[in-house]
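Complex record, two chains
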Amino acid sequence: MSSAAISLTMIFVIVAIGAVIGFLAGVHRKMDLEQWTVGGRGFGVVLVFLLMAGEVYTTFAFLGASGWAYSRGGPTLYVLAYLTLAYVVSFFILPQIWEVGRKHGMQTQSDFFSVRYGNKYLAGFVCVVGIVCFIPYLQLQLTGIGIIVSVASYDGIGRTPAMAVAVVSLAAFVFASGVRAVAWVSVVKDALMVFATLAIGIGIPLIHFGGIGPMFAALAHARPGHLTMPGATTNLGHAWFISTVLLTSMGFYMWPHAFAATFTARSADTLRRNAVVMPLYTLTLVFIFFAGFAAVLLVPGLASGDLAMLTVVRDSFPPWFLGVVGGAGALTAMVPAAIFILTAATLFAKNLYRPVFAPAMTDDQVAKLARSMVIVLGLISLGLAIYSSTTLVSMLLTGYAGVTQFFPGVVLGLYWKRVTASGVFGGMICGVAAAVFLMLSHRDPLFGLSAGFLALGLNFLITVLASLLTPTNGPRSSSTAGF
Amino acid sequence: MSRGLSFWSRLWIGHWRCNNQECAESWIPLAIPISPADASLCDLPVAVKKPSAGALLLGLIPFAAMCFSVSLWDRIDPVLFGLPFNLFWLICWIVLTSACLWAAYAWETACEKRGRRAR
């Protein structure tokens, strides 16, 4: 058997095991909309942890973070800070969101806005922005799978067919078993990912440099500026770090899927305990950075930083191990991608299509429509991934700049009675518009600050000012904000 | 688990005396300076429990350490355990953040218990 065949077989076996576990999780349960989207609201600490860990540690962490460590250096440390601080933010908002969600039977993020602000246009807008922001994130996962398969096949298989197979299989298991499948596949994925990460992060520096310490010493000697900010860049300094960490840690749970994962928890307490444990999971990322930094000296001059980690693994380990890493990476891309597709499909069917086009639809019909949307969304994202060219990290940051614009509406909605629908709507439109404008005109970072952060500041300002200038909502809000 | 935490909370932050005035009273980040004088605007039944001030302070510590103070720790020297100082600092604070949230959890649990007893 050739090296490529060995590593590809390994990847296939791992993904197949994941898929079987996914299908089994959904058997023997009646799949109504509630069960499919929020797992019957009965997940305890362990399942919520797995679900959240499953969606957090995506290809972005696996290939993107090491890619930035390789190509940018110091600025990549923002990943460690923002993931950890995101859980601090979650401690103070998720239990409250859960309480409100249970009281009003919420299943999606858009439900939250519709209940709190009693404005279906605002809820629809949230829904559209959420779905649009998923696109770069989904694209990121599929591109990741493409990279993994093409590196693991020793460049024998192109990215496009690999991504096509991935889309079909993930749409199939989401279609069949919903959110429960995703939580259980995470078990396999997380175990493999931790194993692969530790082996790579410790093994590569050990093989080539004799340890992690000597590796950093060699890197600091060869590229003195690489390990601190701004690293290999000119404009990603400390102001960028602070603004990006604030933006992304606040935006983390504003992703519609992360928001919806809140509703799967059994109690508010589950979410608090989860926030206590989750930061520790960030430690696995440190080992991924080791591999990325080692690659700077070992495989200089790659076309894209995103290839760095796998290329180093391929050059340092036997093919079967490349297959294990590739399999872990493929599941790491497919699990989150499945969640994104699931969330976007539910959002589309329940919060956009039904309120606007077919108010008479029953929950069962919505569930059916959501399931067919899974296939449609899978195909759309595949099409986009084939034509994408940016790095994995910039895809993620683009999505973040958009979803974080929900933050003022969520936090003020929970804690400030005076906030009004018009205030939130106005702030959000300005925030999204500012983010889109700055990103499209390549003004990110602006004045050394992340563009999304500037947009968020504007959003907060307008939300507060406009809320103070407009009267609190009519009788509708006093009844709905039984908040 | 909760019994274990309350034991540790007594050991860790027990001396902070979580009295009702501070804990039961809501602490609203933005509303203090700009809340409307007209009470009729606030008659919405707000059932969401606000985090206590103590827990919020504990939550601010990681932000100060990992985010705002970046220019103080973003350097290579001193190299500790073979790691550049910025990486070493962040690794330490990943663990310490978990500890801060643990303390915040214990604090909130203690506040809840107290609130229930007061009622």
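Note: Residues 1-46 of chain B have pLDDT under 50 and may be disordered.
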